[in-house]
Amino acid sequence: MGLLSRFQSAKDTGAILKDLAAGTIDIVIGTHRLLQEDVVFRNLGLVIIDEEQWFGVKHKERLKQLRTQVDVLTLTATPIPRTLQMAMSSVRDLSIMDTPPAGRLAIRTQVVRSNHNLIREAILRELGRGGQVYFVHNRVETMERTGAWLRDLVPEARVVMAHGQMRAKPLEAVMLKFFHGEADVLIASAIIQSGLDVPNANTIIVNRADTFGLAQLYQLRGRVGRSGTQAYAYFLTPDEGSLTGDAQKRLTAIQQFTELGSGFRIAAADLEIRGAGNLLGKQQSGHIAAIGLDLYMQMVEQAVHRLKGQVVEEELDPVLRLNVSAYLPEEYVADPHHRLSFYKRLSSCTQIGDLALLHAELQDRYGLPPEPVERLFEVMQIRLQAKMLRLVSVELKTQSVVITLDAKNPVQSSGIQHLMDRHRTRLRFLSPLSFELQLPHQDWPSIFRELTATLQSLNVCDTKTSESA
Fold first, then answer.
1. 231, 260, 289: which is the final residue of a domain?
2. Whole-prediction pTM value?
3. Among 139, 175, 132, 173, residue whose Cα is nearest residue 154
């Protein structure tokens, strides 16, 4: 086994490169140093990329070019949007490990405006229980000034600094000093976001958190809480008015997903915010806003199935014209991001049971739903029933409802016959693919009951016919 990084001497590096080329080393662990042209493998068979978010497309392609046939396993808590999208579209295989180590506690996370008193109290509270603190300041040119300010703010603390522009030996010395408990506060750049494990450090303060990516914020938060001690993460921001829309979304996500093993959901939120990137190009995010995430994912998934020779059924989304006021009022769900999230989850429901669970969650969080919300769930139930029957449209007229069937996926004739027997005087065919049902009552509750009963009758008959066949 060999090790390649900038911390090795030139003599040791030369020896490892020679053994790699000769094949006398079976496993080599290294940083980006492994990607340089002087690294030659005799018979490379497996590439394991840990912390994949640190590698660009060129880096990963360079690893694969080292040998024509090579297996690649990538590991990360926060997949790059393009990688996650490829996995979700079946272009790449995906395995999820979401069980945390025994004894770990969820990190208590706060997104707050920068406040001197809060910073001092957070540091003193950690020192008071014998712990250590990370203070992340990602501007190397102002780090010395920040360090002097922090020493004045908390003179009780022993403060050290580390960043990526330091020489290898001094950087290693600072890290070891902090690891061995000889310093209380480590002021650092984003260099600490991966590979650092200090169980006694259980408070992290991130200055100007709005300037970090969502995956970076998640990785930084993961530096604390690595033991059984309750950990705290403070993400400091300027005034809300100065934050961009994407920055607000990132900070909302990092505060929302605090439970252990939430990296996959963080990555999914990052995918939605930044976009999925370019499957065949270098971009690992972006290029999705024009059509939206859901449609883009659906298109890619269908393309993958076609390339595999699988039959892809076109999903039919029925047109509903029901003339009913159905929505989430602002006075019921005030936050626009939460409203959009619920709308998206509603449209993603595939079974009526999913609607019931979402309705219960909404009521638990916001109280008894007003009438427009109840109507919204009823409309979504009709939509689900219509999708199951693959109907083209359901249109409410003045005193009737018109249902249009799909020529490619007709409803079983037994279902139509059942409706004719049940509503002989109220049912009228407008064409071979559409019929009109007269409605005896004009209030929405009665219309909803009539509609759902009609669609359920068609579906039940369809099911029975399929089973008997």
1. 260
2. 0.54
3. 132
Residues 412-463 pLDDT 10s = 667 677 777 777 788 888 888 888 888 888 899 999 998 988 888 777 544 4
Query: Please, are residues 271 and 246 in contact by the beta-carbon 8 Å criterion?
Result: no
Domain that residue 422 falls in: 319-468
The answer to whether the beta carbons of residues 403 and 394 sit under 8 Å apart is: yes
Apex 212 CA angle, 211 and 215, nearest 5:
160
CB 448 within 8 A of CB 382: yes
Q: What is the count of structural domains for the chain?
A: 4
CA pair distance 408, 415, nearest whole angstrom: 17
Neighbour-count burial of 354, counting CB atoms closer than 10 A to its CB (0-12 exposed, 13-18 middle, 19+ buried): middle
Shared domain check, 85 and 113? no
Report the CATH number that the domain containing residue 174 is assigned in CATH.
Answer: 3.40.50.300
Shared-domain flag, residues 455 and 324: yes
What lies within 8 Å, CB to CB, of 367 at 6+ separation is: 332
Residue 131, Cβ density class (10 Å: 0-12 exposed, 13-18 middle, ≥19 buried) = buried
Q: How far is CA 219 from the centre of its chain?
A: 14
List % helix, strand, coil for the chain (3-state, nearest 5): 45, 15, 40
Q: What is the CA radius of gyration of the chain?
A: 29
Same domain, 256 and 112: yes
Per-residue model confidence as pLDDT tens digits over 9-55: 889 899 999 999 999 999 999 888 888 888 888 888 888 888 776 67
Q: Where are the beta strands (DSSP E) in 391-446?
A: 393-396, 400-404, 427-431, 434-438
Q: What percent of the chain has pLDDT over 70?
A: 79
Q: Classify 73 as helix, strand or coil.
A: strand
Residue recorded with tokens 């369809």 = 462
Helical pair 371-388 and 336-348, crossing angle rounded to 10 deg: 30
Q: Tell me, yes or no, whether 235 and 301 share the same domain.
A: no
Q: Which stretches of the chain drop beneath a pLDDT of 70?
A: 53-54, 56-58, 60-61, 63-69, 79-92, 195, 240-241, 261, 263-265, 267-301, 311-315, 410-413, 415, 460-469
Query: Which amino acid belongs to residue 265?
Result: R
